[in-house]
Amino acid sequence: MSDNVLRCSFCGKVRDDVQHLIAGPGVFICNECVELCERVMSDQPLPSFPPLDGKTDEELLADMARLDASRGQVEAAVQDRVLRLRSRSVTWARIGEALGVSRQSAWERYSGEE
C-alpha cells in the first residue's frame, strides 16, 4: 500500500472505497465511521464486529496494513506540527513534554536536518 493514499484513520478504508472522506487535523474519517459514531451518540444498537480470532490470515494481514498506513498519516501530521513549532523557536524540551517523551527522544525522532 502506498503511504500517499488517503484513508480513514479509524477503519483504514481508502478514499476510493467510501462515499466521503472528511479531513481533520492530521486524521481522516469516512462517512461509514461517522454513521457508526452517530449511532453511538444516539444510543442506537451497534452492529456486531467479528472477533479478531474469527478472521482469516488474509483479513488480519489486510487489517494490519490498513492500520499501519493510517499511522503514517498521523506521523506526517505530527512531523508537520513539530517543524512549525521549531520554526517558532519552541524548544525541544517543550515539544518532548507535549509528546510525553524526553527532549532528547523528541529531537532524535523529529529533528531531521535542522
Automatic annotation (TrEMBL):
Residues 1-49 form the ClpX-type ZB domain. Zn(2+) binds at residues 8, 11, 30, 33. Keywords: ATP-binding, Chaperone, Hydrolase, Metal-binding, Nucleotide-binding, Protease, Zinc. Gene3D superfamilies: ClpX chaperone, C4-type zinc finger domain. GO terms for molecular function: ATP binding; peptidase activity. SMART domains: zf-C4_ClpX (SM00994). It comes from the Bacteria. One of its GO terms (biological process) is proteolysis. The keyword Chaperone applies. Transmembrane segments: none annotated. Belongs to the ClpX chaperone family. This is ATP-dependent Clp protease ATP-binding subunit ClpX. It comes from Kribbella aluminosa.
